[in-house]
């Protein structure tokens, strides 16, 4: 048995690989088999994280395990899908049992939190990178896409913005701060919580949705393009955390909220009539703007002046470290 | 728009990304959506190919495109699944449009041949590697697994063995030979044909199946373990190609057939009563041994002597180049 077969067995023995609802056949055969409820479709998304590009190397493997799964599952939340399973393709330069154990522990913690089971993947030798493919199910015709926003809809987000981008100087060890600041910011960076429940609650209510990974303005641009509308963002309505404001001040906090990546908070549009029912259900819904006829994204200040910046988001490969 | 978004658009415009049966939503949203026929399950498999480990770098990107998809789809064949779709996670150190075009052309050619559509993925900067996740559908309960082989079954393969391993000195430029030898061997290495039709024909007939990627003996070991039986391979019955025999001679051809990797030919077990119907249907079925009570894999020579080697297969990371 080669050392890479050892890794496979290691992950096959992890708690998150022990099956679950919808998993007809897990790790160990040529394919895994997934069973979908009648009338449901399969939602699929793939994300790759490369060492030195998407995360610093070395970094805490437990936190990397959490984060690598969370960013992938967030795409299921954005479709309003029920999480089901995932595969892990791990490429690593060497077999470090301690690293693998801690990575698997982080992966397990997030898998348990999100309700997904590991059903397969591949382990190979090479420069460190992780490709996770996640699977969910959604009733046919009820998935939240980017293409249904209509003029008159409200533009909303599901939580505070900019925390992950604000955390970057902490992640990279470039700055320090009090625990009251560092703990919430680092938690947001390393273990973002995919808004799965919110995604389900938005089915039949939101007209468009996506998760914010490239920065609010850039991602709003994706909805605007797919829906052939203009999205208007009101800068003074952005929800900002106390920790972020204390760490970088209001101006930089807004920059992080508008253009920083890695929030993994849902952005969505919905008719005004749907707002009260969602708020009554205690769902996190922050209105930050509206949908108009037109195209692109416009940023307004508190006086209604157009303050749209020229560059709207980070490029993945410029992000970190 | 960043250069990596350009790559995404490049693949989104490829012919194999233009939808097809079962693809409810393709590239461009947070997730793709797949629709399965009623009563069918989803078969999923993930394979990573790393430059310098699983393929020589540089190599012909068209051939790499073909091969990277074929090795993944072969796992669908091994389950008796109908091919449906795939995702591509491409990590590349730089944006080389010519390389990408030729890679996409090879990918398209194999996608068309196999009947799968590209539904999503990720493009990232980093050391060259490719992770493909393939999707198929199979009626619930009819998938071919590794675990159903029973004593008394015949052990069969779906084609000639050892050609890809035999081709390796040609792939690496270590040897030359006449076109009559090099063409079939290199074709087998660079564009293996997943035995999808054979996999479908084996549904309800084969008791166990897998595709040979690590070498016949190693992969027979997987069936033996999963089924809790012994597999007996008769060395003189191995199907060997004229080109391989002419290139390396009979002894080395048998070594390549037994322990070389990358054949992507199906190995399967079936009751003797199923042999004649399959042969009558002109399916490629070569009987190479039998299933017995016991465990492990035993290799016999033409006189029935046990000639089982100690080491049974290549390790992925030792393979090439």
The assembly state of the depicted protein chains is homodimer
- Shape annotation of chain A: globular
Instruction: Describe the strand arrangement of the main beta sheet of chain A, using strand numbers.
Output: 8-10-7-11-9-12
Query: Which sequence of SSEs, written as H and E, runs from N to C of chain A?
Result: HEEEHEHEEEHHHEHEHEHEE
Number of helical segments of chain A?
Answer: 9
Percentage of residues in DSSP E strands of chain A: 15-25%
EC number (chains A, B): 2.7.4.16
Family (chains A, B): Belongs to the thiamine-monophosphate kinase family.
Keywords (chains A, B): ATP-binding, Kinase, Magnesium, Metal-binding, Nucleotide-binding, Thiamine biosynthesis, Transferase
GO molecular function (chains A, B): ATP binding; magnesium ion binding; thiamine-phosphate kinase activity
Give your account of this protein's structure:
2 copies of one chain form a homodimer. Chain A is an alpha+beta fold and 321 residues long. Chain A has 2 domains: 137 residues, PurM-like, N-terminal domain (60s Ribosomal Protein L30, Chain: A), CATH 3.30.1330.10; 160 residues, PurM-like C-terminal domain (Phosphoribosyl-aminoimidazole Synthetase, Chain A, domain 2), CATH 3.90.650.10. In chain A, 35% of the residues lie in helices and 24% in strands. Chain A has 9 helices and 12 strands. In chain A, a hairpin with a 6-residue loop joins β1 and β2. In chain A, α2 runs parallel beside α6. The C terminus of chain A is likely disordered.
Short structural description:
Two copies of one chain form a homodimer. Chain A is α+β, with helices and mostly antiparallel strands.
């Amino acid at each position: 048995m080669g050392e890479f077969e050892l890794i496979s067995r290691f992950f096959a023995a992890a708690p998150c690989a022990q099956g679950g609802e919808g998993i007809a056949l897990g790790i160990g055969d040529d394919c895994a088999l997934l069973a979908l409820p009648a009338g449901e479709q399969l939602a699929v998304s793939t994300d790759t994280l490369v060492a030195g590009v998407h995360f610093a190397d070395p970094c805490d493997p437990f936190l990397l395990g959490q984060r690598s799964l969370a960013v992938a599952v967030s795409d299921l939340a954005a479709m309003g899908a029920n999480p089901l399973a995932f595969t892990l393709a791990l490429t690593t330069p060497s077999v470090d049992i301690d690293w693998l154990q801690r990575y698997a522990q982080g992966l397990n913690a997030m898998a348990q939190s999100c309700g997904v089971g590991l059903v397969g993947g591949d382990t190979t030798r090479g420069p460190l990178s992780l490709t996770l493919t996640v699977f969910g199910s959604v009733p046919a015709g009820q998935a939240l896409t980017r293409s249904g926003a209509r003029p008159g809809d409200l533009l909303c987000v599901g939580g505070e913005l900019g925390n992950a981008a604000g955390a970057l100087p902490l992640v990279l060890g470039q700055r320090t701060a009090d625990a009251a600041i560092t703990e919430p910011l680092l938690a947001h960076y390393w273990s973002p919580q995919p808004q799965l429940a919110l995604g389900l609650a938005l089915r039949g209510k939101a007209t468009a949705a996506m998760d914010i990974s490239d920065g609010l303005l850039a991602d709003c641009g994706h909805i605007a393009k797919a829906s052939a509308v203009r999205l208007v963002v009101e800068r003074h309505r952005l929800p900002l955390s106390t920790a972020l404001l204390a760490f970088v001040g209001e101006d930089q906090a807004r920059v992080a909220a508008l253009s920083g990546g890695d929030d993994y908070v849902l952005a969505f549009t919905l008719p005004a009539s749907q707002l009260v029912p969602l708020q009554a259900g205690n769902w996190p819904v922050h209105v930050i703007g509206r949908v108009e006829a037109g195209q692109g994204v416009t940023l307004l200040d508190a006086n209604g002046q157009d303050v749209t910046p020229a560059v709207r988001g980070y490029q993945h490969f410029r992000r970190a470290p």
